[in-house]
Design brief:
Blueprint: E1 4-7, E2 13-17, E3 22-23, H1 30-43, E4 52-56, H2 62-74, E5 78-84, H3 90-96, H4 104-115, E6 122-125, E7 128-134, E8 148-153, H5 167-175, E9 177-185, H6 190-198, E10 201-207, E11 214-220
Parallel strand pairs: 4-5, 4-8, 5-7, 8-9
Antiparallel strand pairs: 1-2, 2-3, 6-7, 9-11, 10-11
Helix pairs in contact: 1-2, 2-4
Length: 221
């Protein structure tokens, strides 16, 4: 699957897939979207001192990086589990160069995040452990031990990857969540909100990141 490196409005880069006419992050700012949707409205919004995060779509590793940096800053011991069917290449990782958007510490963290072996939990920093699962979410079954506090749902859009936005997916994620877990996604589609509500999440629409009027957040009640 061909992917091209493109610039976004805040100076960070992302990947574009011509065959899908879809990019990994918002062209209005990859870093801005990641920080606002997933970190601010998801990770920071949950009160746990030691949250477990599950991410749908590891992609470029940007969400993992911003979460690892925030975990160290706030001294929250964080377990981060992410699933990805099509990992990016070493050349793409180097070209994205997300660490240099922050600091030398971030450069090292970004390297460690991508160097982490797939399907093995790895301590990346004092406050951040990472498990990258190389699998298809539609075929993946959570174990009873896997319980999460925050869900980053960052699959490609419902019109591009509809099989990822179905009730059966949302139901098994709901089952894998602790009570009061937070589910965040950049999508604001009414159909998605209704599906998540039907699966047991109490849904709300929030103001979206630049370029999007709204986004969705759910809470397991």
């Amino acid at each position: 699957m061909e992917r091209r490196l493109i610039d976004t409005a805040d100076g960070s880069k992302t990947l574009f897939i011509p065959a899908m006419d879809e990019q990994y992050h918002s062209v209005n700012g990859a870093l801005t979207e990641s920080d606002y949707v997933f970190l601010q409205q998801g990770y920071r919004a949950h009160p746990s001192a030691s949250p477990a995060v599950f991410e749908v779509g590891f992609g470029t590793g940007l969400n993992a990086l911003v979460t690892a940096l925030e975990a160290s800053k706030s001294e929250r011991s964080t377990r981060f589990v992410s699933i990805e069917k099509y990992p990016v290449t070493p050349d793409e990782i180097e070209a994205l160069d997300y660490g240099n958007l922050f600091s030398e510490e971030a450069v090292h963290l970004f390297q460690e995040i991508h160097a982490a072996e797939w399907d093995k939990e790895v301590p990346v920093s004092d406050y951040f452990s990472l498990l990258k699962i190389h699998a298809d979410l539609t075929e993946y079954d959570f174990t009873e031990e896997q319980k999460f506090d925050v869900i980053y749902f960052d699959a490609f859009g419902p019109d591009k990857q509809p099989n990822m936005w179905q009730n059966d997916i949302f139901l098994k994620i709901h089952h894998a969540c602790h009570q009061d877990a937070i589910f965040v996604t950049y999508s604001a589609k009414g159909e998605i909100r209704r599906k998540l509500a039907a699966c047991g999440f109490s849904m709300e629409r929030l103001p979206g990141p630049p370029g999007k009027r709204q986004m969705l957040r759910g809470t397991k009640k």
